[in-house]
Amino acid sequence: MTAEVMAEVALLPGSRCLASRGVLCAGRAEAKAGSSSGGAMARGSARRAGVPGSGVQGRRPERSGPRLGPEARAPAQAGSRLPGSHPRASGAWLPSGARARPASLAGVGVAGEGVESPGSCLLPEARPSPAVAPARVAESPDARRPLPAAWQHPFLNVFRHFRVDEWKRSAKQGDVAVVTDKTLKGAVYRIRGSVSAANYIQLPGSSTQSLGLTGRYLYVLFRPLPGKHFVIHLDVSTKDNQVIRVSFSNLFKEFKSTATWLQFPLVLETRTSQRGDTKMGCGWSRTDLVGLAPSRARWTCLQLDLQDILLVYLNRCYGHLKSIRLCASLLVRNLYTSDLCFEPAISGAQWAKLPVTPMPREMAFPVPKGESWHDRYVHVRFPSDSLKVPSKLIEKSCSPPEAVLLGPGPQPLPCPVASSKPVRFSVSPVVQTPSPTASGRAPLAPRPFLEVSLSQERSDASNVDGPGFHSLEPWAHVEASDVHTAAAGTHVLTHESAEVPVVRTGSCEGFLPDPVLRLKGVIGFGGHSTRQALWTPDGAAVVYPCHAVIVVLLVDTGEQRFFLGHTDKVSALALDGSSSLLASAQARAPSVMRLWDFQTGQCLCLFRSPVHVVCSLSFSDSGALLCGVGKDHHGRTMVVAWGTGQVGLGGEVVVLAKAHTDFDVQAFRVTFFDETRMASCGQGSVRLWRLRGGALRSCPVDLGEHHTLQFTDLAFKQAQDGCLEPLAAMLFVCSRSGHILEIDCQRMVVRHARRLLPTRTPGGPHPQKQTFSSGPGIAISSLSISPAMCAVGSEDGFLRLWPLDFSSVLLEAEHEGPVSSVCVSPDGLRVLSATSSGHLGFLDTLSRVYHMLARSHTAPVLALAMEQRRGQLATVSQDRTVRIWDLATLQQLYDFTSSEEAPCAVTFHPTRPTFFCGFSSGAVRSFSLEAAEVPVEHTCHRGAITGLTATPDGRLLFSSCSEGSLAQYSCADPHWHVLRVAADMVCPDAPASPSALAVSRDGHLLAFVGPSRCTVTVTDSASLDELLRVDIGTLDLASSRLDSAMAVCFGPAALGHLLVSTSSNRVVVLDAVSGRIIRELPGVHPEPCPSLTLSEDARFLLIAAGRTIKVWDYTTQASPGPQVYIGHSEPVQAVAFSPDQQQVLSAGDAVFLWDVLATTESNQNFPVAPQACEAGSGIGPLEDASSRASELPQQQVPKPSQASLPRLGICARPPEGGDGVRDTRNSGAPRTTCLASYKAFTPARVSCSPHSAKVGTCLPPASGGWLRLKAVVGYSGNGRANMVWRPDTGFFAYTCGRLVVVEDLHSGAQQHWSGHSAEVSTLALSHSAQVLASASGCSSTTAHCQIRVWDVSGGLCQHLISHHSTTVLALAFSPDDRLLVTLGDHDGRTLALWGTTTYDLVSSTRLPEPVHGVAFNPWDAGELTCVGQGTVTFRLLQQRGADISLQVRREPVPEAVGAGELTSLCYGAPPLLYCGTSSGQVCVWDTRAGRCFLSWEADDGGIGLLLFSGSRLVSGSSVGRLRLWAVGAVSELRCKGSGARSSSVFMEHELVLDGAVVSASFDDSVDMGVVGTTAGTLWFVSWAEGTSTRLISGHRSKVNEVVFGPGEAHCATCSEDGSVRVWALASMELVIQFQVLNQSCLCLAWSPPCCGRPEQQRLAAGYGDGSLRIFSVSRTAMELKMHPHPVALTAVAFSTDGQTVLSGDKDGLVAVSHPRTGTTFRVLSDHQGAPISTICVTCKECEDLGVEGTDLWLAASGDQRVSVWASDWLRNRCDLVDWLSFPMPATTETQGHLPPSLAAFCPWDGALLMYVGPGVYKEVIIYNLCQKQVVEKIPLPFFAMSLSLSPGSYLLAVGFAECMLRLVDCATGTAQDFAGHDNAVHLCRFTPSARLLFTAARNEILVWEVPGR
Fold first, then answer.
1. Which of 131, 614, 1254, 1294 is most open to solvent, judged by the fewest CB atoms within 10 Å of its CB?
2. How far is CA 26 from CA 120, 1340, 1697, in A?
3. How many H-runs (helices) and E-runs (strands) does the chain carry?
4. Stretch 1290-1303: mean pLDDT
5. pTM for this one?
């Protein structure tokens, strides 16, 4: 699992390299709260048993009727713990009377050192009260919950932790002593005795306690005593709180298992080696393996995978290790637990080159020099990854004794596996034993056996050369909302043709987010049958199957919820009467059934049915009984009754009875009045059933003359008086002949018989009325009964509503096909109907309006296409229809049907409301969605259309057919016409596929498979001239069979990649120009992939893989394997990204719409190999584009080894930076890319409101002002060249927002030059270092961008000039400092020259094209050079008197350079000019000759910065690489012209930084310098030492909170970038950073000083996923992760004693939790519906307010409501003191956002409360809690965005969206305004001492001093 939290220790002052980072493994995510099937919490219920110390009183569930099991529920209360409130990381509940020991400071271990828990005492297990606990629950689930797992990482020394030598928390019995072992040279425990059960060590000492160890692996270091038996007992608790005993012993002769006990024989025996015997298992017999330990037994490392043991053998999910008992006779050194799979025989020198984890030194056995580990010790790994049959055991050819585990007999499943047997019967446990040759080399990386993930499947590629796969915890995270899950429960069953995911441990972590897709919607209905559609008991939703997915559709909103897990079509559904249990059956034999918790979506149980194919299911009303009907393997009808009452309590489904019958059963129902009675109907029979005495018996109903009818459905009618007796119930049965029989269930006779007959008016095609007489009847397929009416569905397509006396038709609705099912809602007002044509809808009886819920294709979907502007989807299907859908509502808009020919392919016109469709006849037609007609048709093909696609601009359309022809059409006008038809171009026998034809994203290239299966051809899209042909059949030279291409697709135009899927299960990435192989993904799927696509940002590769969808991280070279998503029951035919890249569509049996959870960042780069992850085997790095030069040298220069590169990032992901990519390729021109951050300044802040002009843009003077700016935290990484450093003078300046910060690198003192009205974009320092020029972006307050000229010595602005109407991109002084050049951005395109004497404008030029850089010639002040799109422009300054003109000379960039845009430049030795390109090239120009004579590939990303000095060149790229080049020989190459070669240029050093390089300054020798990146970091770089030191670092994203530690030594900030940073308050240097990937940290709180010693300081951080993490500041570790909220947290605060955490979320819930145990013991829902914006806690005795309590706290929500509470959490008291509501006008938005509602207690008067928020007036409201009234109002100029009250004075700080901060003196009523931020001041916080004020605007933090107040 990816390490979720990373701690970064910042540099000490003066350090020159990054400190090492400790990585913490976050606690494993558990299954969703409330999903546990045992304990005191029922499914989806808030009911909790009363447990001592919990603070919650238990309630006895009220039962009514025959309800069994956990179906009776109590409503949630304020004091109850809601589902999802307990911690995601396992936490221990501390009962009354139990106290945890003080936290240990050495709680986080490193490799080689043991760890201690933060609470080192055992927690006694609490037992629920017998009065309220369920009968089958032996312990409280909270008591069984283990301790947090963070302190157990990386491993835990069990003996040390529980202090076995003291025997206080452990027990010994019999002969147990400490002895010294000669082999280990240390003390060990000897356990001996003739009776194993009487001589043992027990951990823990009492059976009422639990170890609570969550580590997946248990390591037992022991040696059996010779000639003796030994036993090892482990008690393991499952996630559903079932305790399983797992035993290993040489006493056992064979493997045995029960539901609660597993016995494994572990036998060690001496084998006599036989020369030349190399066969597996030779020399062994089964009887030889059972007996006493051998005389030469060796020390053994027994490694037990507890997770896989429970999963494989009992199909249960591992929770934690409860207890251990080591019984005689053996020696034991120690026990360890860990989540890591250690390799004991690998040393440090060996494992450095292998993707394995070595055994820590503390755990390792000593090995003398020159000896082999395997010669001295034995390693037993169970279950093993190399499973063998017991009769053919692993080969052992060494003489010393080895260990063998005997297991069950079935063959192990191969990898990958497809089996028809349960996983639990498919494993043979064996021991991993080394071969004699293993001692001489390191063994292969260990790999766990089978890790079956129900939340996500992984690729099963068995190819050794395939991509590496990372370890995935199968049960790590199960959420009801995670709709990509294969099953939401803890049961796994493989089916025929169903994949069992096999996970291979690799060196790289899986890509994030995980999952990256979430199912949003499904278009489809039915699959196996259209008879399965149900109302929920409340009538709000409809439940129906869509092939393998079960859909719950809210009829009023259209929202869908899904139950995923079935691997084949769902054949039957049933829902109990309380909406608690949902049962479903799978169609394929043998039928697999699932029981779901309907409220949470969790699969509670999975089991096989004795019936091969279940066709009908029926629940009893209470859900305790489930009946099913189907056929057995002999074809006989079978009825089965299951008991389901104990499923929610941890029990299993029990077969109560089953019966065979020779009578046909078409419908089967359990009666509502008696759970033991049922009824069935079928061909010629209606039978009543009863369950009694474990048997099902039936008796027929006397049908009389109707005994020959074919009955189709039945329904019960309850008597009008509500009586539940059988005699009061009537049974209605319908038949295919139109008969409806009313049967008396008590007398079992027909009371009434009616027949539905059609009558037609003359010439009328439809029935006008119905009568009951003789004649041909209407075939009735379904009926449903309500107390007032009967709904009937018939094959004539009508739904008819009748009164129960069938006197006349009340209402009828005609459908487009036969009605297959009807169902009346519980309230009787809506009638659900389904048709065999795939329509589902309901009739509203009150309004008499029919509402369509779902439509569906009746055959598999072949292709799809999307239209962006209207949000429409087009699909073609084998049912010969073309349908248009609305993607927003998933409703069908149009339906085009063709009876004579089948549609094969479809595509939309990119700009017009038209789509094109290809047919099996070879015709291609266009359909207008506005006119609903076919305007044009072309029949130039002779075969069926196999491919159809259009260019992105809509000018051209291409089609291919099965005869091999390719047609090109002109679509410039609606009457499109054929341009050319080329025969024998496309592979003639290729099947129709959405990826048969592919057009590049820029529309210039067309790719297809052809002219044969083994070739892929790329042509020019305009002329169809062949540009490239790649022979796929010769790609794999090692394969014996000829490979063929299946599908093609282009990547983004900037990449130039062409992806081809092949028949050998590979995806090959080709260069679209040269055809060379860039990379390869082998073994993507066992079957060929018909469709694949790559996202626009090239992050994700999407592949249709059989019945699954696979998503690959395309940016990662060492691929961790794909994420695999199931749900389709038939092969997926097409996959595609939506035009906005926010969704994915997959089509097969149905159409699935998936949300893409990955956030698309604007600075996302194209694929770059992440530096924090080594490449896996078989996949090399992404090779650079091939040389396209014909006249210029294009060679790879020497590079240092990758091993020498420092790893600077704190997480393994592509470096952020670049701000997007733009493709400037023209037809026939080479492809180029250029990062936007290298082209123009892109402000990340919004401009201020015009109101800010009233405030002014200058800071108040230092003297007399209330505030003085002390420090600025942050650097504007989105500028360019916005940092300057002169090493000779020490001058160092950079920009942060509107400010220019001048900092002393020695003392850290800052000066702040203010005045700009917008964010500063760039800086330039004069050559004399006396003048600094700064330029800003656009502002709403000024007409032109400001350029300020500063006096460096005095820090004063000498000149303010403006000319550019758009952002100034670059500044540069001439060599003599007489001129200043300014360059406008790409919108302004203005080049201006200023005289530096008076700074008057001397020249201004409008540029014809965008220019990316400008520079003066250092040896000729009259020459100015600009670089831009495809040209280098030399401008010579000619002065005539006072006038200056520019003589322009333009030189185009040679095509051989391979780039269309130049992004950077710098002058070298005369007369050389170095230019960087957007494709990573560096080209060298001779400025005298005006020609480019040399170029080389300097980087993978665009070159945004070049610096030259002496003979060295520095290049900085968009991917964060900083490289130093030796270019001394380039001057000599100038004379060679085009014959020059770049072999004389070599790279000396390389550093990888955390973002794209945007600024740099180096000394003259280029030995050291300062570099700025887009990540907002300034680095000090030393090439001599090869180090980079962080100088300035700010948050990447918005800062959400600032909190302060006790004593004000430190402060902490949190941000939307997921980081929590701790700063030294005196110097504002970064000390610690906690990073959570792919989550936003939204709120933060620091524990109060009274909660403990300083070393116990903690931070509570709330995140966007609803999690709350507790960090220890002293140990730089995450102590606990809890999940008290299902949605994002918005506020968090500690109680005054620090023992309680209050947290609020965006839904308005406030949760109260224990920060030590992670339990949530109270949830307040008073603010539900509006986000909590503030939680403020103060210490106050509340007697004067009329309530009791030690804490007074408030919560403010977004609906302008404030609640005030008094609480005493130790006494579990919380009382509402006051409730405030403030009115809000209709429009109060500020900057497009609603101002927040903020409230705070007044620190100088405890009775006062201050509130700001949206209201009628802009003001601060002061409310008196004692007087219960508003006592004062302070007017404000704008609506407030932030609020803070000074603890030491009467000051009030208010931040506004108008970039202004106001300080109000509440004592005098005066105010003062301050400017400095360039965005809304959304955060302001006084320090506890009131000496400092922190303000934040987006990611900028300003620290203000509050002098003398």
1. 131
2. 19, 46, 26
3. 7, 138
4. 92
5. 0.46
